[in-house]
What does this fold into?
Amino acid sequence: MVRMLPLPDAPGVEPALLGELVRVAFSQRRKLLRHTLGRWLEGRGFGGEFDVQRRAEEVPVADYLRLAASLT
It folds into this structure.
């Protein structure tokens, strides 16, 4: 038996923005994030640091949460 519990809502993270970010990151299978998320971040004028030389599945949830919080 497996029991899954949802993580609590992260403070300062807009759920719709996080959903869009994750959808873009996972939109192309097995591609580096620079092809998908990198372009999306450029379009939003993101000037921070985020390693887009990884695949979406290699990024920990905490990194996505931090990125979403920095975009708000």
Observations:
- The mean pLDDT is 92.
